[in-house]
Amino acid sequence: MVKLNNLKFRNWFLPIILALMSFGISAQDIHYSQFNHAPLLLNPALTGLFDGEHRVMANYRAQWNTVPVGYKTFSGVYDTKAFRQEDGKSFFGFGGIFNFDEAGDSHLGTINLGASASYSHQILKSSWLTAGVQLMGYQRRFQTQDLRTDNQWDSGEDRYDPSRSLGENFDNQSIVYGDIGAGVNWRYQKPTSRTSLDVGVAMHHINQPNKSFMNDVDDKLPNRKTWYGIASLQATSTVDIVLNLVGNYQGPYVEHLLGLAGRLHLSQKRTKELSMLLGFNYRFNDGFGFDDAIYPTVVVEYQSWRVGLSYDLDISTFSNPTSGNGGPEISLRYLFKNVGKPDFCPTCPTYL
Predict the structure, then answer these.
(1) Global confidence as pTM
(2) 3-state secondary structure string, the chain?
């Protein structure tokens, strides 16, 4: 066994361990702290639920930049309404999704393109029921040029030799697979106020595709089960109270997020609408005794624009290497609206 001094350990052994950790983390889906601002990733039944004709959204997240295996995630989404019934009591929603995620010294990354479709129907005067389905295609790949293994340690020279082989063989460094997800969302929306409630459940990776890089290994992608509740209560003419709660379960991984926020409507004049939301959120994995992160959130909405900013403060068992720095997250949304009130569906559900 090669004996390494502390300096050598810090310089290359720790990055190896962390790189291997990134392979384990990859078993989980990409996720955003601002989960309610990434609705099509939360539930395909949220496709088309917005106040307007067309919606464009983007999300960006950077995490653990203070350690060698930080990862970055980007998503872009477009969705729209279509085939609206003349009585305004039902419509379809269609959307497209692009996701990119990369982590670790192996540059382990996933690129996926997907399509969502939903059908919404008004079941009562103030409530809507929506069912949605999502088809996704994935490319998963990694690189080896920045990886280090013990096979590259020259014991005779007592030094690390990057020209030596890693000593690891992979059948593939890039694979492609597809999967399917589905979900249901129920929305209560009081017509005469801003009070609303969304409750939904979804399942992703229903077919559990094989994500292994080895030809003779069956490494199924576990399905992810999601439930959530997103509530907005109009407290006064200018103030709303917003409560968010979500649970994600994927194989052995468990994630819960709880958020409380207040929204102040600074201007409600038509075409000059302006509001600001300040929130505090908590993410925990199993029970309240197993902490993960806390993150404050600021959201500004002006006319058809919405920008959300949040920052994760790491309070998990990994907080020492990260110095408590989880990472920033940004969300952006723009709505394309018709001038004047549309003739169709005057009480259509409008997701936050």
Answers:
(1) 0.82
(2) CCCCCHHHHHHHHHHHHHHHHHHHHCCCCCCCCCHHHCHHHHCHHHCCCCCCCEEEEEEEEEECCCCCCCEEEEEEEEEEEECCCCCCCEEEEEEEEEEEEEECCCCEEEEEEEEEEEEEEEEECCEEEEEEEEEEEEEEECCCCCCCCHHHEECCCCEECCCCCCCCCCCCCEEEEEEEEEEEEEEEECCCCCCEEEEEEEEECCCCCECCCCCCCCCECCCEEEEEEEEEEECCCCEEEEEEEEEEEECCEEEEEEEEEEEEEEECCCCCCEEEEEEEEEEECCCCCCEEEEEEEEEEEECCEEEEEEEEEECCCCHHHHCCEEEEEEEEEEEECCCCCCCCCCCCCCCC
